[in-house]
Design a protein that fits this description.
It is a single chain. By secondary structure, the chain is an alpha+beta fold. It has 2 domains: about 270 residues, Alpha-Beta Complex (3-hydroxy-3-methylglutaryl-coenzyme A Reductase, Chain A, domain 2); about 100 residues, Alpha-Beta Plaits. The chain is built from 15 helices and 10 strands. The strands form 3 sheets. It has a 4-stranded antiparallel sheet with strand order 3-8-10-9. Strand 9 and strand 10 form a beta hairpin. Helix 6 packs across helix 8 and helix 10 crosses helix 11.
């Protein structure tokens, strides 16, 4: 969907009634409110559909479906669907997106959608087996391609094979690991790469003279990366008596804290995942896989590090950069059965997995910015507990634009 003629800046949207927000969302989608509202208000999933998704179903469990306004990502005006039960996350993301607009919005890139299948090989001569496998790379890739000819026809499929030798504590070769790299296009890709990996086992065992162990994708999808960057004028960061320069320097200091201390980095990254997971849930994606990949990537150097870092630019602006694996899809899985997941993709106008990945990265970055801005000024609890109060009977509804 083309959103270039629309404006995602919606001041005071939180203060509208629920039906009015629904009507405005229907207008954004050029949809009839009478058709759209029942999908949102009924949760998008019947018990019968739930029974087709997983086993032992006894009912459905609802979570709030929200929309965060104000996002500009690569020049596109976007409303972002989020599913989360934690108060303040949606409001904080929307508020941070408003601030980032002052610097032109989020600039985000995504790499080719490459996933990795790992095939474990036990053999008595690992070095000889490694050489044989690499010599047969072309044949192995052809075997893998035959396992999913439709994917190849669409422009995806296996692209490379790598071989690693894993050593034990004494430096002795323990076993080989073959990495099959596959372009999965607009799918998350787990089933595809697992099928291809299993198809290679007979030839790999023959080449290595050994036996295969595990054959499974890796959730450390470090060939499927997304990178988000922002530049925010210091004046846009002003907050409740704190001038922009002070807030900027506080955010930079907090970022440095996370870079130096894994205890702080864990909470820093959790704030990022608040936004990331909420969009993953809304769009029917595997949030557990993305969480695993994100934290493994954060620890890739042997020390757990922040996924997003902030610095002061030479021009005095706050500059941020987020980089993380992002294995997501817009086809298959829950998106086939879950009406709200399909609706969420329509709201985003995401016509590719790469587009969805870019949006998710921007929302994670917005969540991080909002948290650091609050922590370095009034503290996280003031706004957080104010919004917690919404769930108490008789409390006034409040929010942020």
């Amino acid at each position: 969907m083309e959103n270039s003629a629309k404006n995602s800046r919606l001041p005071g949207w939180y203060s509208l009634s629920l039906p009015e927000r629904g009507r405005q969302l229907a207008e954004w989608l050029s949809e009839s409110p009478g058709r759209l509202l029942p999908i949102m208000q009924q949760g998008g999933l019947s018990v019968a559909e739930a029974d087709r998704l997983v086993e032992n179903v006894v009912g459905v469990h609802a979570l709030p479906l929200s929309v965060a306004p104000n996002f500009v990502i690569n020049g596109r005006q976007l409303l972002v669907p989020m599913v989360i039960e934690e108060p303040s996350v949606v409001a904080a993301a929307a508020n941070a997106a408003r601030i980032v607009r002052a610097g032109g919005g989020f600039s985000v890139t995504a790499s080719e959608p490459l996933m990795i299948c790992q095939i474990q090989l036990f053999t008595s001569d690992t070095l000889r087996a490694l050489g044989k496998i690499l010599e047969a790379k072309a044949d192995l890739l052809a075997d893998a391609a035959r396992a999913d000819p439709l994917l190849v026809k669409l422009g995806g499929g296996p692209s490379d094979i790598e071989v690693r030798c894993l050593d034990d504590e004494n430096g002795q070769a323990d076993f080989l690991v073959v990495h099959l790299l596959v372009s999965v296009l607009d799918a998350m890709g787990a089933n595809t790469v697992n099928t291809m990996g299993e198809a290679l086992v007979p030839r790999l065992e023959a080449l290595s003279g050994g036996r295969a162990g595990l054959k499974i994708l890796s959730n450390l999808a470090d060939r499927r990366m997304v990178t988000a960057q922002v530049k925010v004028p210091a004046a846009a960061l002003e907050m409740n008596g704190f001038d922009g320069d002070c807030v900027r320097d506080g955010i930079v200091s907090a970022s440095r804290f996370a870079e130096l201390d894994p205890y702080r980095a864990a909470t820093h990254n959790k704030g990022i995942m608040n936004g990331v997971d909420a969009v993953l849930l809304a769009t029917g994606n595997d949030w557990r896989a993305v969480e695993a990949g994100a934290h493994a990537y954060a620890a890739r150097t042997g020390c757990y590090k922040p996924l997003c870092v902030w610095s002061r630019g030479d021009d005095g602006c706050l500059r941020g950069r987020l980089q993380m694996p992002m294995a997501v899809g817009i086809i298959g899985g829950a998106t086939r059965l879950h009406a709200c997941a399909r609706l969420a993709l329509r709201i985003l106008g995401a016509d590719s997995a790469g587009e969805l990945a870019r949006v998710i990265a921007a929302v994670g970055m917005a969540s991080n910015l909002a948290a650091l801005r609050a922590l370095t000024t009034e503290g996280i609890q003031k706004g957080h507990m104010r919004l917690h109060g919404r769930s108490r009977p008789g409390r006034e509804k409040r929010g942020r634009d």
